[in-house]
Amino acid sequence: MTDSDKTKTEDAPRDFIRELIRADLSAGLHDGIVTRFPPEPNGYLHIGHAKSICLNFGVAAEFNGLCNLRFDDTNPAREDEAYIRAIQEDVRWLGFDWGERLFFASDNFEQLYDWARHLIKQGLAYVDDLSPDEIREYRGTLTEPGRPSPHRDRTPDENLDLFARMRGGAFDDGAKVLRAKIDMASGNINLRDPVLYRIIRAAHPRTGNAWCIYPTYDFAHGQTDAIEHVTHSLCTLEFEDHRPLYDWLIENLPVPARPRQSEFGRLNLGHTVLSKRRLIQLVEEGHVAGWDDPRMPTVTGLRRRGVPPAAIRDFIGRLGVTKSDGLVEMSYFENTIREHLNPTAERRMAVLDPVKLVIENYPKGKSEELEASNNPTDKSAGTRIIPFARELWVERDDYMDDAPKKFRRLTIGQEVRLRFAYFVTCTGVIRDANGNITELRCAYDPETKGGDAPDGRKVRGTIHWVSAAHAQSAEVRLYDHLFAAEEPGKERDWLDDLNPGSLEVRTACYVEPALADADTAVQFERLGYFAPDPDSAPGALVFNRTVSLRDSWAKAKG
Ligand code: ATP
Ligand code: MG
Question: What global pTM score does this model have?
Answer without folding.
Answer: 0.94
